Amino acid sequence: MQIDYNYAFFDEGSKREIRRATLKAIAIPGYQVPFASREMPIGRGWGTGGLQLTLSLVGKDDVVKVIDQGSDESVNAVNIKKLIEKTTGISTTDETSEATIIQSRHRIPEVPLKDGQIMVLQVPLPEPLRFYEPSEFETKKLHAEKEYSGAWLMLFEQIMKYGNLATDADHPVMVDDRYVMAPSPIPRFDNSKMNYSEALILLGAGREKKIYAVPPYTKVVSLAFDDYPFEVESFEDNHCKQCGAAGVFMDEIYDDETETTYFQCNDTSYCVARLNHQTV
Amino acid sequence: MGYVAVKGGTRAIEESIKRLKFERVKKGTVLDVHKIETGMRGLIDQVMSESSLFSEILAAIAIKQAEGNPEEAVFLLRAYRSTLSRKHYSRTISSEDMLTERRISASFKDIPGGQILGATTDYTHRLLDFGLMMESEEEALQWLEGFEEENGQQENVTDLAKLPKVLDYLRKEGLMPECSDDDREPDDVTKKSLEFPSTRSQRLQILTRGQTGALTSLAYAVIRGYGALHPTVGELRVGSLPVCIDNPFNQYNDEDDSYYIGEIKATETEMLIPVTVEKERGKKEIKFEIGYGICLGQNETKAIAMGILDHALQTGNKEYPTGDEEFVLYHIDSVESTGFISHLKMPHYVTFQSKLDSVRKTKKQEAESKEESSLCK
Amino acid sequence: MSDYETPIMSVKNLSKHFGEGCSNCRDVNENHLIRNFCPDCGTVYACRNVSFDLYPGEVLGIVGESGSGKSTLMRSLYFDQDVTSGEAYLRSYEMGSKNVFEESSQKKRYIRNHLMGKVYQNPMLGLRMGFSSIGNIAEKLIAAGIRHVGEMESKGRELLEYVNIPVYRMKEAPRNFSGGMQQRVQIAKALSNNPPILLLDEVTTGLDLSVQASVLDLIKELQRELNVSIVIVSHDLAVIRMMADRTMVMLDGKVVEHGLTDQVLEDPQDRYTQQLVHSLL
């Protein structure tokens, strides 16, 4: 018994359904569109939302880049890339500027996104109000009524407890002055890249069965208070040990031999590109 | 070097996959898919039911590939299911048309058509049968011959394809209220995601696809104390159901014009649940309500658990987590729960770095305010 | 002073039924009901054509036994549940021109966040038990549009001090507090956005007598100082006598008597009120 899979894994009907939900998401920036999430050949919670978006969109001429934790070579990124290659036969790249579709978990690349590119983010928990209100039925009402006291209250509580905004990744944003949205667990550092992004940003939550979007040139503001402004992660004056870059999101690495801590670009392809450029 | 885990992923995966195959074949034997299909009925049925895909042969391949791990086998079949286009919905199947192999009622001894014990482990002694170590195919075939001879002599008086439902009998006797048919087109949870409040058709679909263990545990909680139900099995039947589809070129959807496309084995339960209802002027009366369970294959515990949970969700008593539809329906799917639990194995370096930054900021602020206050003193 | 003569809130023919009703009771065939309950279909007529006005700065008491419909009335006024029929107008909302029961849920939320405060008998309903006390107050301020932490913190501190919650316990969750303290936090929360109308539902029920007295004193003081209009519901005539300017007596979902509190207590007209007053003596 030998069975061949369709182009890009899904049957065409499924792809159309996902694209319809995506169109709706683009039409209502920041609104979580429920969709009939399919089971995928990779684990639920391992990027199935992003993968469904990518597979529903990818055409023969597309070039796909996949990163996880900023790295093109992380096991999960490789795994997803392999599946896309296997089921479509299209080519993949590490080069951010060459890609037409960039699927990522936890990062937006350092190289600015351009008009015409699609950024696909994998989302574990799409509901920014979930820890304020566990019931989906209730949070849906809160969104409908634009009642976001809960989102701000959670930030207020952090300030009361820790003396400052203590969110790590996934700091909530207001999209187009209407919907509060979970930007997926990207570091706060990447939040601003969503604001008036030239590229279309799509977010897919497979297990939670939601698709949402930030269309190009849409206002995205990180929630904060007048007297406690939003702050991104700070790497102070540290430079990347490999390429010397500053002002990028960095990994902190401990070297057991010298017993010192050093920093390195988290976005590996950005770092490699800089290194190559330097040696030329 | 801190990059080991995120670099060289391609090689690492290739080697890991080889390692996995090695584990499967290292003893030098290969499992025959046909043998899995014929000899592992219990696992096949569980996997088909949780995958919501009826195919014994596909289940057998999945079980072989997963080395017998049901969660992995279900995962494989669900992923495969995603690639199949849905061309037809079957006509409504009436479970009275089941070709019954087994059928019991715990509520009434004398049910029309009689109790049929069929194949069950219920009354076996759970003594490990060491004889199976040496069982040969020859022996099995010989036994089979004898068995068939013996069975051929018995005269079967009941028509096993037309057994009346126990509950209909109760209704006729006036022991159960009539209920009206709900002929609304059912929702399809694989086409449109769940929204709350959910419909009964959505609930039944999620329950029947649910993980056997998860359903059993939650239903156990309902009858043990978190829901205070004391149900009885009104009827449990196991057998084959005929599946028909409408002629796609005939818009009138006549039954006569439909096509029989095969049969599926299923377990169906109708649970009787006594509830107290308030009648006029404060009088109280015991009434029976129904919890319905059905699943692919012979999965009796699961079907009964489903019946209990169906009723618990229908009643929707939020005092207990088992009455909260979001709590139950969002957490019992095998692929969803195992997927999210296992995703914790993935690297979370960036979020962790971000957290580190927050913690440091807080610490720094604390130190500064301590300094300030000590200066004031 | 016509300002004091126009009601701040007008409720007209508010009705709330639980159940579908049947041909025997739907036309409110009064005699058919047993108290407020239809024996044939089990429908409960929790509130039946309740009408009243609330004037600026006054305290209106509603008294009645449990099951008389007082709490249902309060829940309806705060949109915790929908009414079956009836109207309510708020002077501070659209100049009193709109029946607030017919507004969208978004508008109703606005009214809850800006124009009303409510203190529940059960603090679980009015507070987020796991959030800090000051966070609970901030929630209402955030809802009213404030986005300045310092401002909310000082306002919250002021209110909590006002209701005698020690400042050092401000960041603690109400979950850790005693019943009386929880009630005081609820009052502070309800007052945080200076609502013109405050709804108090059996706020002292279940508290120790001395704690009861201190909570009531606090409410009285607040009322005088902030000049807020209050609807207070209690099954306890002593509470009503101490607090209310005017009183409404409810029985089986209906208003059976209303008037100045002194008048109702000294010279009750309705048979049920007479019974109630005598049982107090």
UniProtKB/TrEMBL annotation, chain A:
GO BP annotation list: organic phosphonate catabolic process
Superkingdom of the organism of origin: Bacteria
InterPro entries: PhnJ
Pfam families named in the record: PhnJ (PF06007)
UniProt-recorded Gene Ontology molecular function terms: 4 iron, 4 sulfur cluster binding; lyase activity
Assigned keywords, A-Z: Lyase
Keyword Lyase: yes
Descriptive protein name: Carbon-phosphorus lyase complex subunit PhnJ
Protein species of origin: Peribacillus saganii
UniProtKB/TrEMBL annotation, chain B:
Molecular function via GO: lyase activity
GO biological process assignments: organic phosphonate metabolic process
UniProt keywords, alphabetically: Lyase
One Pfam family per UniProt: PhnI
Domain of life from the UniProt record: Bacteria
Protein name as catalogued: Carbon-phosphorus lyase
Source organism of this protein record: Peribacillus saganii
Automatic annotation (TrEMBL), chain C:
Entry-linked InterPro entries: AAA+_ATPase (IPR003593), ABC_transporter-like_ATP-bd (IPR003439), ABC_transporter-like_CS (IPR017871), P-loop_NTPase (IPR027417), PhnK (IPR012700)
SMART domains xref list: AAA
All residue ranges annotated as the ABC transporter domain in the record: 28-277
GO biological process terms, semicolon-separated: organic phosphonate catabolic process
GO molecular function terms listed in the Swiss-Prot or TrEMBL record: ATP binding; ATP hydrolysis activity
Pfam family, one: ABC_tran
Keywords assigned by UniProt, alphabetized: ATP-binding, Nucleotide-binding
Keyword Nucleotide-binding listed: yes
Protein name listed in UniProt: ATP-binding cassette domain-containing protein
Species, as recorded: Peribacillus saganii
